[in-house]
Write a structure and sequence with these properties.
Mean pLDDT: 92
CATH architecture of the largest domain: 3-Layer(aba) Sandwich
Order of helices and strands: EHEHEEHHEHHEEHEEEHEEHEEHHH
Radius of gyration: 19 Å
Number of helices: 12
Distance between the termini: 33 Å
Number of strands: 14
CATH class of the largest domain: Alpha Beta
Strand order of the largest sheet: 3-2-1-4-5-6-11
CATH topology of the largest domain: Rossmann fold
Length: about 325
């Protein structure tokens, strides 16, 4: 199989590329490298001879004719993500994410199988309003509580992308799977997500150690499990045209307890300072994985403590462009 991975230098994208190569497939990795880095891991993939790395701005119509058409699977993971980015420039989030999905639909040709990366953020309004249960199945209504809220621009862009792919791909003779990711974490995800953000502050010796929204709950999914779910869904014909949750529903974790775990694994014992959860941060988030299990037999395999340990091991040697963060992370602000 030959796969086209759009956003392949990003967090989930690169882990997916590595898995596809390990499974014996050829991959064309496309990224604009605005978030993902052309680093040693990508250099190692180049050396395998199985990965063709290309730089492209997927919001530009002129970028698409240059992409190879002799592929079997297409994975769209390219997007502007993160609460900080969304709140700083929601118009950019809407523009980049929607244009990329729309250009992909225009580029598609019959016979392709497409995976579109979506998000649990589409349920935030319904959960806040008390209309959506937790754990959350895929068949509940989604709602945008306030279209003018900058925070909701990401969810709007992803719902638009879902609709574009579900309707547009079918019209072009392609099959599509929509994966709504729930709180995926792991090595190489940057500094603006709750687990690495906590870890970097702990490693930097922050004391008192700040915890936002300690009474909230999330169900975290290690990136290796997320990639396994994606691979299984793309190999399952019954998933065609389906929206399916990707996550881990076996461990709903209190954020205060997560902080204790990170501090213990980091080997520090600072005083703790509890702070309120930021505005519009949902109290609880957890997927119902019933559909994923029925379709693929998937079960999460990486326990939280083991996954956090692996993540910390990577961040002990990572050096971000700006050093350890000193402000509330995008995940603590509700993108967990």
């Amino acid at each position: 199989m030959r796969a086209l991975v759009l956003g392949g230098a990003g967090f989930i994208g690169l882990h997916l590329v590595e898995r596809l190569v390990a499974d014996g497939h050829d991959v064309v990795l496309v990224d604009d490298f605005s978030r993902g880095r052309d680093d040693e891991r990508i250099a190692a993939l180049r050396r395998t001879g199985a990965v063709d790395v290309r730089s492209a701005d997927l919001t530009a119509p002129t970028a698409w004719p240059a992409l190879p058409r002799d592929v079997d699977h297409v994975y769209l993971l390219a997007a502007v993500v993160g609460v900080r980015n969304v709140e700083a420039d929601p118009a950019r989030v809407l523009r980049v994410n929607t244009l990329t999905a729309a250009h992909l639909v225009d580029w598609l040709h019959p016979g392709l199988r497409v995976f579109f990366s979506s998000t649990s953020e589409v349920y935030a309004g319904g959960v806040d309003a008390g209309l959506v249960p937790v754990p959350t199945p895929e068949d509940v209504p989604v709602m945008i509580a306030d279209v003018a809220s900058p925070r909701l621009a990401y969810a709007i862009s992803k719902l638009t992308g879902e609709a574009l792919l579900l309707h547009g791909a079918r019209a072009r003779g392609c099959s599509t799977v929509i994966g709504r990711f729930h709180n995926v974490y792991g090595p190489r995800m940057g500094a603006d997500h709750v687990i690495p953000e906590m870890a970097l502050r702990a490693m930097a010796g922050e004391d008192p150690f700040r915890i936002w929204g300690a009474d909230q709950f999330r169900a975290f999914c290690h990136v290796d499990d997320a990639v396994e779910a994606v691979v299984r869904l793309m190999a399952t014909p019954a998933a065609d045209g389906r929206i399916v949750h990707i996550g881990n529903d076996s461990e709903q974790t209190n954020i205060g307890d997560l902080a204790k775990l990170v501090l213990r694994l980091t080997g520090v014992a600072p005083a703790v300072r509890h702070l309120p959860a930021p505005s519009r941060s949902v109290h609880r988030r957890c997927p119902d994985l019933g559909a994923l299990r029925r379709l693929t037999g998937f079960e999460p395999s990486v326990p939280l403590e083991e996954g956090v340990r692996r993540t910390l091991d990577w961040y002990r040697t990572w050096r971000g462009p700006a050093g350890p963060p000193s402000t509330v992370s995008e995940d603590v602000a509700g993108g967990r």
